[in-house]
Amino acid sequence: MTAQATTTGAPADETAAEDRPASVDIRIEQDIAAAIFEQRMPPGTRLSEARLGQLYEVSRTVVRKALFRLASDRLVEIRPNRGAIVPRPDVTEARNVFAARRVIEPALLADSVPHLAAADRRTLDALVVADRRAHEARDRQAMIRASGDFHRGLARMAGNDVLFEFLEQLIGRTSLIIATYQTYVLPHCAEHVHEALVETIASGDVAAAQQAMIRHLLDCEAQLHLQDDDTETDDLAGMLDAHATDTAAPAFTDTRNAR
């Protein structure tokens, strides 16, 4: 990548921004997502467009594109007249999200399992492969996304668009909950669990598939360290320092074991 985050300078004007590679906004999105997933950027962090523009030497328009994509993934909340912030799901919300998923996902299996086609099985197998590759790469952001993709793909097979839309919102909220409360060293939704779940689903036993899904979601919730943490800081440069090259940037502080 050609753009580098720095800790000096002012946001570039719109003309300069247009001259930069189109991937700069994607890099900003990836850097912020990684900082959230790696627990360097805690919930409550304010994402100033002006400050991010300084760090990446781009215009606010470029920064805004990245923030809007993060908002679509439920990793960032954009508040009118207040800007973007990393939302803070509390413990009660976290438990409620998993409780809702334990109702919706088994219910969807009642419709999908009896009608699972060969093409559906191939789709699930491909999702498991993507999940495995993310784990092999030890890419936490990719692991969380691959897990969400697996659950979305499975839910879509039920053909209930209303429940799928609701579940998709819950999965997005789950990603932030995991990034907030999971001990960094623990895997989430290990790919072998999804592989075993697919085998149970393919057997055609609806009740067994539903019980397997419930156990799986309970295990995912059990991995979380569900305690509220009010830590708050505005040091965006420090949070994004793993991706910066400016020697004047603040030293990286590893906060992954602080939870």
The portion of residues forming beta strands comes to under 5%
Question: What characteristic shape results from the CA principal axes?
Answer: elongated
CATH homologous superfamily annotation of the largest domain: GntR ligand-binding domain-like
- As for the CATH topology of the largest domain, it is Four Helix Bundle (Hemerythrin (Met), subunit A)
N-end to C-end Cα span = 32 Å
- Give the domain tally: 2
Largest sheet: 3 strands, antiparallel
Give the uncertain stretches in residue-range form: 1-21, 244-259
Percent helix, as a range, is 55-70%
CATH-derived architecture of the largest domain: Up-down Bundle
Instruction: Give the topology string: H per helix, E per strand.
Output: HHEHHEEHHHHHHH
Number of helices: 11
Verbal overview:
This protein has two domains: 14-88 and 228-243, Orthogonal Bundle (Arc Repressor Mutant, subunit A), CATH 1.10.10.10; 91-222, GntR ligand-binding domain-like (Four Helix Bundle (Hemerythrin (Met), subunit A), Up-down Bundle). The chain is mainly alpha-helical and 259 residues long. Helix 2 (24-37) crosses helix 4 (60-72), helix 7 (140-156) runs antiparallel to helix 8 and helix 9 runs antiparallel to helix 10. The chain is elongated, with a radius of gyration of 20 Å. The protein is built from eleven helices and three strands. The protein has a three-stranded antiparallel β-sheet with strand order 1-3-2. The model is unreliable at 1-21 and 244-259 (pLDDT under 50).
